[in-house]
């Protein structure tokens, strides 16, 4: 803390207050935009206070950094499609972690003989968390962007190997602080420590599969906050510690909510290698049983002459970018007097709230979106459910204690009078198991690409008398 | 009380405050919450400015400038994309 310039500390305090108030306004969609503006004002106050205080000697490099970062961030924010938000947030997590790591690294470079005191330990922590966040986020980005396989990458002895690398990171960090008195220069040990930490970030994320990404993104979000806090400890700055802690808490809460949405522990998500080809599950019968098919005309008739329809969107909606066509169908049904609602499972999509943002982009009113707890009791009074590109989150197998998704909270769509599943094929979802919902007497399968099917549906609903 | 202990107090209390505030954010806003939190983690810009401002030698200067660029991607990109998203949340 800078007690010689109390005004600077007052500015930082004001910034911290604005961050908290800004986050509080995210509690309602009506005030959220203002909250985000307050948080950005908080950032501006913190930056100005720092510039006034830091007695910056050379501006050239700083201005280049600011201009470059602002340009990249601004262009990305303007250009990104709402379907690509998980990737964007993923890579932004990485930059946040990377920036915090670089602050800690620069401090070590400036004083390699820092030793094992509190400064040394916070530098090591900041470097470790930041580096893991950096590379882990890039792997998450690559998986979400399709640059590498979205399936878990596993190998024998993986968890033991990762534990070995983790212990190696700790050992290198300790020796770089002079513990053990090795005859190697601290800076050399530090670079080895940094390299191992970067590798650890890759190793932690590769065994985690596509549909578990909401957990990973949330956790990396939390790490990026903790890395900022650690950087705050390194340079003795309270506003960094506070903001980092707020982000850390946000990420952790979302991580826990996502795990709860799948009825799995964080350890199971992190070390389970869940998804893809699951051993011990008989897949030979998937898609072999008879189903009832329907075309767009039949589906339009099923939806257009009833009182209530609940739409269940899933990741397939995002992949097909069919949200605008879906909204058109919803609007036309409402014009016909049908009550249309949207049921959002906590882990639908690839990040928390992914579906809500897609539907908001398509101009669906947010008071028509309901989460699992709010809507599950309504399905038994619902005439028709339209499932668009969702699978595991509506699989009744979750009620079977023997299933690998046993206990996962699901949307009870099978209790509706009619279920229409819009899907490309009968292929299984992320969990790799068949979905009994598809074979029920009251289920109709509407096969095809979600966007084309939805366009056909728009036309057929319009034709209805 | 040393600066480290004060920092720990502040960290723990800020985490608890964050938990109270963020638990009440509705699921429909979880993506903007995350991208907004992302922008806030760009607060590392403060550390980056301090480091770059007093850097000695090319390596430290380079590290500081890289940190500034990365943090600014988060700050500008994070707040802008969050604003863009929240602008889409409308009640009709």
Outline the structure in words.
The complex is a heterodimer of chains A (465) and B (92). In chain A, 57% of the residues lie in helices and 7% in strands. Chain A has helices spanning 6-24, 29-53, 60-79, 85-110, 118-145, 158-176, 186-205, 213-235, 238-262, 266-271, 296-304, 315-320, 323-335, 354-361, 372-375, 450-463, and strands spanning 308-313, 339-344, 369-371, 384-388, 418-423, 443-447. The radius of gyration of chain A is 25 Å and the shape is globular. The model of chain A has no long low-confidence stretch (mean pLDDT 92). The mean pLDDT of chain B is 94. In chain B, helix 3 packs antiparallel against helix 4 (58-86). Chain B has helices at residues 3-23, 30-41, 44-53, 58-86. Chain B is mostly helical and 92 residues long. Classes of the chains: A alpha/beta (465), B mainly alpha (92). At the A-B interface, helix 1, helix 2, helix 3, helix 4 and helix 8 of A face helix 1, helix 2, helix 3 and helix 4 of B.
Percent strand of chain B: under 5%
Radius of gyration of chain A: 25 Å
Structural class of chain A: alpha/beta
- Physical arrangement of strands within the biggest beta sheet of chain A: 3-2-1-4-5-6
Low-confidence regions of chain B: none
Helix content of chain A: 55-70%
Helix content range of chain B = over 70%
Q: How many distinct beta strands of chain B?
A: 0
Basic shape of chain B: flat
Which blocks of ≥5 consecutive residues of chain A have pLDDT under 50? none
**What summary fits the major beta sheet of chain B?**
none
Short description:
Chain A has 465 residues and is an alpha/beta fold.
List the helices and strands and how they pair.
The complex is a heterodimer of chains A (465) and B (92).
Chain A: H1 6-24, H2 29-53, H3 60-79, H4 85-110, H5 118-145, H6 158-176, H7 186-205, H8 213-235, H9 238-262, H10 266-271, H11 296-304, E1 308-313, H12 315-320, H13 323-335, E2 339-344, H14 354-361, E3 369-371, H15 372-375, E4 384-388, E5 418-423, E6 443-447, H16 450-463
Parallel strand pairs in A: 1-2, 1-4, 2-3, 4-5, 5-6
Helix pairs in contact in A: 1-2, 1-9, 4-5, 4-8, 5-7, 5-8, 6-7, 8-9, 11-16, 13-16
Chain B: H1 3-23, H2 30-41, H3 44-53, H4 58-86
Helix pairs in contact in B: 2-4, 3-4
């Amino acid at each position: 803390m800078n007690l010689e310039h109390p005004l600077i500390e007052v500015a930082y305090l004001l910034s911290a207050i604005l961050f908290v108030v800004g986050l509080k306004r995210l509690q309602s969609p009506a005030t959220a935009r203002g909250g985000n503006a307050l948080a950005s004002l908080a950032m501006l106050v913190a930056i100005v206070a720092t510039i006034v205080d830091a007695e910056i000697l050379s501006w050239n490099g700083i201005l280049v950094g600011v201009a470059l970062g602002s340009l990249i961030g601004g262009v990305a924010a303007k250009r990104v499609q709402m379907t690509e938000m998980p990737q964007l947030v993923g890579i932004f997590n990485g930059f946040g972690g990377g920036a915090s790591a670089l602050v800690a690294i620069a401090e070590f470079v400036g004083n390699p003989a820092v030793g094992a005191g509190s400064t040394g330990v916070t530098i090591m922590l900041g470097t470790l968390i930041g580096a893991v966040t950096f590379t882990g986020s890039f792997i998450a980005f690559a998986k979400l962007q399709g640059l590498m396989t979205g399936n878990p990458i596993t190998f024998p002895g993986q968890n033991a190997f990762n534990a070995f690398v983790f212990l190696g990171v700790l050992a290198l960090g300790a020796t770089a602080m002079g513990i053990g008195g090795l005859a190697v220069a601290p800076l050399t040990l530090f670079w080895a420590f940094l390299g191992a930490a970067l590798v650890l970030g890759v190793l932690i994320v590769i065994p985690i599969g596509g549909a578990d990404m909401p957990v990973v993104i949330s956790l990396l979000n939390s790490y990026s906050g903790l890395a900022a806090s650690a950087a705050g400890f390194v340079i003795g700055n309270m506003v960094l510690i506070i903001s980092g802690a707020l982000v850390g808490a946000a990420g952790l809460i979302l991580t826990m909510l996502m795990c709860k949405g799948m009825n799995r522990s964080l350890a199971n998500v992190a070390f389970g290698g869940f998804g893809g080809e699951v051993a011990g599950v008989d897949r030979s019968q998937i898609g072999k049983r008879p189903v009832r098919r329907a075309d767009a005309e039949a589906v339009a008739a099923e939806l257009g002459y009833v009182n209530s329809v609940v739409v269940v969107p899933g990741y397939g909606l995002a992949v097909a970018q069919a949200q605008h066509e879906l909204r058109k169908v919803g609007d036309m049904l409402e014009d016909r007097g049908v009550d249309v609602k949207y049921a959002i499972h906590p882990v639908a999509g690839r990040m928390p709230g992914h579906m809500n943002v897609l539907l908001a982009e398509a101009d669906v009113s947010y008071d028509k979106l309901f989460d699992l707890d709010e809507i599950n009791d309504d399905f038994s009074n619902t005439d028709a459910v339209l499932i668009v590109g969702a699978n595991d989150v509506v699989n009744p197998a979750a009620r079977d204690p023997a299933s690998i998704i046993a206990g996962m909270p699901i949307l009870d769509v099978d209790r509706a009078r009619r279920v229409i599943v819009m899907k490309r094929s009968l292929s299984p979802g992320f969990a790799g198991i068949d979905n009994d919902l598809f074979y029920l007497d009251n289920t109709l399968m509407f096969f095809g690409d979600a966007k084309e099917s939805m366009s056909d549906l728009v036309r057929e609903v319009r034709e209805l008398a | 009380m040393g600066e480290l202990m004060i920092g720990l107090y502040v960290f723990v209390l800020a985490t608890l405050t964050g938990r109270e505030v963020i638990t009440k954010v509705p699921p429909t806003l979880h993506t903007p919450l995350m991208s907004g939190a992302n922008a806030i983690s760009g607060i590392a810009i403060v550390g980056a400015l301090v480091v770059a401002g007093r850097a000695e030698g090319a390596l430290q200067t380079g590290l500081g400038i890289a940190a500034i660029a990365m943090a600014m991607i988060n700050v500008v990109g994070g707040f802008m994309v969050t604003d863009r998203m929240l602008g889409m949340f409308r009640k009709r």
